[in-house]
Design goal:
Layout: E1 9-12, H1 19-49, H2 56-82, E2 88-91, H3 92-125, H4 130-133, H5 136-162, E3 171-172, H6 179-183, H7 191-223, H8 228-256, H9 266-287, H10 290-310
Parallel strand pairs: 1-3
Antiparallel strand pairs: 1-2
Helix pairs in contact: 1-2, 1-9, 1-10, 2-3, 2-9, 3-5, 3-7, 3-8, 5-7, 7-8, 8-9
């Protein structure tokens, strides 16, 4: 049962209350969100439509792009819509729902990045057994485990928030609902809930990050015996993945792997893992990967041919 609450809505302070700055926020995030949807949507379409991108690496990349689109869509449209309004408000149930989906897609992304690191480890350190180990069934199970892990993580966070009573105040200095700023609004002792929140999010981050470090430590150790050309190709594919991992994990660690306190910098840091990483993801993978660039050109060329035939 949810705790009794007098609060029925949450008010966001957003980035600024000044009208001219809100217009800048509106235009900036509208352009960024459009680029995220188009870029990641193109990546998903390219992986689905291109027979040459059938390896497990691209299978995971397609799902990563899908998750990035969903993850950004939890916060960006609301921020864009609120930039038109003087009063930025969300219902209490809507706030907890936003927390659920934010952690659902965020947790799924963490597990997908870990699965991609394992895929790179098998490809480089076990090349002769790569096809057997990373079979379609195994890849499907890894993606299913990523979605399931994200669901369990987000259900735990939302359940903890749902049990708290909120009696006022109802204003948070942020542009979306997250566990730390919402915890500050609870009118009960949140010490135990804070520990559970940290344990839930921190354990996932620590375990996943340890898996990533172990994978790349084994990869670097294995590359010592490779020829220089093979070493460069392997490092090139790993560099794209490491860039996305760094862009996502570093700001997330700053926010979630610490005591449940809010800092003025949290809003800016949140932009990096909710908007900047999804924005850069397709560019990082496409610009550094010839196969993806060629597949995108073929897809766009095919689309142009279809349009000419329709005419």
């Amino acid at each position: 049962m949810a705790a009794a609450s007098n609060v029925t809505e949450i008010i966001f302070l957003g980035f600024s209350q000044r009208q001219n700055l809100q217009k800048v926020v509106l235009v900036t995030f509208l352009l960024m969100y459009t680029a995220i949807v188009l870029g990641n949507g193109l990546m998903v379409a390219t992986v689905l439509a291109s027979k040459g991108l059938s390896s497990p690496m691209y299978f995971f990349l397609g799902y990563l792009s899908l998750v990035e689109m969903c993850y950004c869509s939890v916060t960006a449209p609301k921020l864009i819509f609120d930039s038109w309004r003087k009063r930025k408000v969300i219902s209490l149930h809507g706030c907890i729902t936003q927390i659920f989906f934010l952690h659902f897609f965020g947790g799924t992304e963490i597990f997908l990045l870990t699965a991609m690191a394992y895929d790179r480890y098998v490809a480089i350190c076990r090349p002769l057994r790569y096809t057997a180990i990373m079979s379609p069934r195994v890849c499907g199970l890894l993606v299913g485990a990523a979605w399931g892990g994200g669901l369990l993580h987000s259900a735990g966070q939302a359940f903890l928030m749902f049990q708290l009573p909120f009696c006022g105040p109802n204003t948070i200095d942020h542009y979306f609902c997250d566990v730390h700023p919402v915890l500050k609004l609870a009118c009960s002792d949140t010490f135990l809930v804070s520990l559970l929140v940290i344990a839930n999010g921190g354990s996932i981050s620590v375990v996943s990050f340890a898996g990533l470090l172990a994978s790349y430590a084994l990869i670097l150790h294995s590359l010592r015996t490779h020829a220089a050309g093979a070493r460069r190709r392997a490092l090139s594919t790993c560099a794209s993945h490491l860039a996305v991992v760094a862009l996502f994990f570093i700001p997330c660690s700053f926010v979630y792997m610490r005591p449940c306190v809010t800092l003025p910098a949290d809003k800016v840091v949140a932009v990096f893992y909710t908007v900047v990483t999804p924005l850069l993801n397709p560019f990082i993978y496409s610009f550094r990967n010839t196969e993806v660039k060629n597949a995108m050109k073929r897809l766009m060329g095919r689309k142009g041919t279809w349009e000419e035939n329709d005419r």
